Amino acid sequence: MFESGRRGLITGLVAFFFVFGASWLALDYFIPSPPSKVTIATGPRGTTLDFYGQRYRDGLIKAGIQVVLRPTAGGLENFKLIKDPNSGVDIAMVGSGQGNSLEAPDLVSLGTDFYVPLWVFYSSTLSIDDLAQLQGKRIAIGREGSGVRRQAERLLGEVDINSQNATFVPLAGNAAIAALTDGKVDVAFILSGAAAPAIKAALKNQRLRLMNFSTAEAITRIFPDMVRVELPKGVGGLHPVNPPNDVTLVGITGHVFVHNTLHPAIVQLMAQILKQVHGRPELLQKTGEFPKSLDPDFPVSQIAADYYKNGPPFLQQYLPFWMSIYAERAIAFVVAALAIAFPLFSFAPRLYGWVIQNRLRRLYRRLCLVDDALRLEITAVQAQALHSELAEIDRLSRAFLARYADLYFMLRYHLDRTRSRLVEASRAGKIGEDQA
Questions:
Q1: Residue 413 confidence (pLDDT)
Q2: Rounded-to-integer distance, Cα 129 and Cα 360, Å
Q3: Can you give the pLDDT at residue 2?
Q4: For position 256, what pLDDT does the model report?
Q5: How does 263-291 read in b/e, with b if 16+ C-beta sit within 10 Å?
Q6: Is 80 part of any domain?
Q7: CA distance 410 to 400
Q8: Which residue from 176, 221, 356, 426 lies 20 to 30 Å from 19 (Cα-Cα)?
Q9: Number of domains in the chain
């Protein structure tokens, strides 16, 4: 009885650890933990990409994720980095028209997140209202490989301005505004959102003026990836009014790209941060205008699209990020354990029953051998061996008593009959003398 209980305990422990291990492996395979560190490709200092990169970093750090900001030349370099699986970049900000899904099939977009206007500031000592007037000027156009340089060269190329008839200076962001303020350049092209510090400073600088794109509609027809943006009068200051008139700008839209293998929890967290950062009103957008589940060049993550439409999942409405992740994994673990345990424990009794019946068959075979021996004349030594065999069969059969009493008593019935036959054979003198 004690032996049977100990065997059952060991069997139960083995089953428990098997279910626990199998559930843990299934959970780790199907629902792995999110990474604790990500790298974001941003842009030059003082630009929108740099500014938003810092905002994204703050949101991720608040959720317990370590963040590395990787400064770059801009959107074009960001696109090259994010599509390279060996670059180490997990998240990148890229402007519209700077790549497509055919070039990078492993990327997904988190939607359209913000406007990135092309600002053309010039010295207040000049009068410029057309791109063609920039011929012969010193122009801060950004460095090679940057998004601002690409957009500026596209527009200037339409009016036949190039490095042969103008001086292109590889400065961008804060450096371009500083050079313009100091008189080192005449014009500065800046591809940046209105919230960037460089733009805010330039709009308030009385020594600078902002060029109006009177041909903005034509530009958006020539370059379909560009958009028209209106800057209202006085948005930079009401006393004095700055700008003194409504200004029409052209630009592109900003998108955040991630690898399609990035952990869903990080994608969902980024969607939450994008909604917090870009859902507020700014100089060029209204409340709730961004982010949008739209990208003409890349597939939009379904996780991000669901978040923009429905908000955070139930658990994240009440729990911090990491706590909600642990809660989701715990629920998934319980579900996985139950999915494994129910079939296992429903099959285990049948398997155990088969094992018992197999052991019973072996005992019956041994009992049949004893029975067959009794059909012949046996010696005293053989009789003693048969008694020992029956005693051993009797001992082994007692393991069935606890849970398989019916099988035990059936075997015991046949065992007693065989033992009686052996005793009767001894009394009837059917046991021969041992030969010397």
A1: 72
A2: 102
A3: 41
A4: 95
A5: bebbbbbbbbbbbebbeeebbbbeeebbb
A6: yes
A7: 11
A8: 356
A9: 2
Q: What CA–CA distance (Å, rounded) separates 9 from 13? A: 6
Q: What is the pLDDT of residue 434?
A: 47
Dihedral of CA atoms 219, 225, 228, 229 in degrees, nearest 10, equals -140
Q: What is the DSSP string of 218-252?
A: HHHHHSTT-EEEEE-TTTTEETTEESSS-EEEEEE
301 with 364, same domain: the answer is no
Residue appearing with tokens 């205008």: 289
pLDDT of amino acid 1: 40
Give pLDDT, residue 18.
60
CA 406 from chain centre, in angstroms, equals: 57
Intervals of the chain under pLDDT 70: 1-32, 46, 313-338, 340-349, 351-353, 399-409, 411-412, 426-436
Cα(162)–Cα(150) distance, rounded to whole angstroms? Answer: 12
Quick one: pLDDT at residue 325?
Answer: 59
Q: Which long-range contacts (CB under 8 A, 24 or more apart) does 127-135 make?
A: 128/187, 128/209, 128/211, 129/211, 129/212, 129/214, 130/159, 130/214, 131/155, 131/156, 131/158, 131/159, 131/161, 132/159, 132/161, 134/159, 134/161, 134/166, 134/187, 135/159, 135/161, 135/165, 135/166
Bridge partners of residue 250, in order along the sequence: 118, 228
pTM assigned to the model: 0.64
Is residue 207 one of the residues assigned to a domain?
Answer: yes
Taking the C-alpha atoms of residue 210 and residue 126, their distance in angstroms, rounded to an integer, is 11
Return the structure tokens found at 109: 């977009």
Q: Which amino acid is at 304?
A: A
In the block, residue with structure tokens 């209106």: 230
CATH code: domain of residue 225? 3.40.190.10
Question: How is residue 285 written in tokens?
Answer: 């957008």
Distance of alpha carbon 199 from the chain centroid: 34
Cβ proximity of 132 and 105 under 8 Å: no
CA-to-CA distance for 96 and 252, rounded, in angstroms? Answer: 6
Q: Residue 15 in contact with residue 344, Cβ under 8 Å?
A: yes
Cα–Cα distance measured from residue 434 to residue 436, given in angstroms and rounded to the nearest whole number: 6
Q: Can you give the residue range of the structural domain that contains 178?
A: 37-312
Q: Are residues 53 and 165 in the same domain?
A: yes
* Domain-located, residue 30: no
Radius of gyration of the chain (CA): 41
CA end-to-end span of the chain: 44
What pLDDT score does 218 carry?
A: 94
Report, in this order, helix, strand and coil percent for the chain, each rounded to 5.
50, 15, 35
In a domain, 423, yes or no: yes
